[in-house]
Amino acid sequence: MEIENEIRIVFPAKSCNEAMARMTAAVVASQLDPSAAEIIDIKTAVSEAVTNCIVHAYKDDIGKIEMTCRILKGSIFYIKIKDSGCGIQDIKKAMEPLFTTAPDEERAGLGFAVMESFMDSVRVTGGPGKGTCVVMKKRILPRTYRQAGCERNGSDNANERTEQ
Amino acid sequence: MSVKTEITDGKITAYLSGEIDHHNAGPIRNEIDNALEKNHPEELVLDFSEVSFMDSSGIGLVMGRYKLLKELGGRLIIRNAPPAIKKVMKLAGIDLLATIF
User: Fold this and answer.
1) Do the chains contact at B60 and A106, CB–CB below 8 Å?
2) A17, A18, A22, A52: the active-site residue
3) CA–CA gap between residue A31 and residue A13 (Å, rounded)
4) Chain A residues whose beta carbon lies within 8 Å of the beta carbon of residue B55
5) ipTM, 2 decimals?
6) Chain A residues with CB inside 8 Å of B86's CB?
7) How far apart are CA B35 and CA B93, in angstroms?
8) How big, in percent rounded to 5, are the helix, strand and coil portions of chain A?
9) What does pTM read for this prediction?
């Protein structure tokens, strides 16, 4: 799919960077003129993916997280979040709602469920010792569609939107 | 992110504000748990009116307080959660455990 714009950042897996990552993704997505609800969906999904890297992939060290945001032709926001951490033993199981390997840390086990619920597609690749790569996409509805009342998933309030 | 607690007869209200994520869920949890352990309230109200963002780390925070209250014999009330935060809570089934206003 044709890439119209691309921003890539690499940052250490420190929890103070969770907010930076989701804000960066939101700023890139804003080029597509999303509604406020769509921005919150993207920020939440990115926060989940980055937190997974920090809590699970690099639980014993502080490795690097690579985040690539793209604007694809057709008003699609693409985001890739990649780590070189321990990797996931069983990706299918890890994506089951409420599955967590860190219950003592009050992890809800909902990271992937939130990503799948808030984005149009989520693809997870990797394995033990290979790190993990999460690619998510979300089509941003054009403003004219929204004004015509064609709000869809993630948009709880048709009047909520990003004013520019 | 900050939390202010108000203690009245048998009730603690925690006013949360800012963003709740994995980075700052810990300090909020400690603040609320200190108040719960000192006062053993019948009711904990979590007021989300000033919360601008929450991911599933916030769900862990809410579920953890629900479990603690259950042990102490109290109940949990969620108040003033903005639509986006209610959406995350419903996904987690929090509406089945606590009263959400």
Assistant:
1) yes
2) A52
3) 27
4) 44, 47-48, 51, 114
5) 0.91
6) 156
7) 25
8) 35, 25, 40
9) 0.89
- Looking at chain B, how many residues does it have? 101
Q: What Cα–Cα distance (Å) separates residue A40 from each residue in A57, A59, B26, B82?
A: 25, 27, 22, 12
Q: What residues make up the domain containing B35?
A: 2-100
Digit-coded pLDDT (tens) for A86-130: 999 999 999 987 777 776 667 778 899 999 999 999 999 999 999
Q: How far is CA B26 from CA A33, B3, B21, B58, in A?
A: 34, 12, 9, 10
> Which tokens sit at A10?
């690499």
3-state secondary structure (DSSP) of residue A107: coil
The CATH number that applies at residue B17 is 3.30.750.24
On chain B, the residues whose CB falls within 8 A of the CB of A107 are: 56-57, 60
Q: Which domains does chain A have, with CATH numbers?
A: 3-147 (3.30.565.10)
Q: How many domains does chain B have?
A: 1
The single-letter code of the amino acid at A51 is: T
Contact pairs from chain A to chain B, CB under 8 Å: 67
CB contact under 8 A, B59 and A110: yes
d(CA A117, CA B88): 9
Asked if B91 and A40 come within 8 Å (Cβ–Cβ), the reply is no
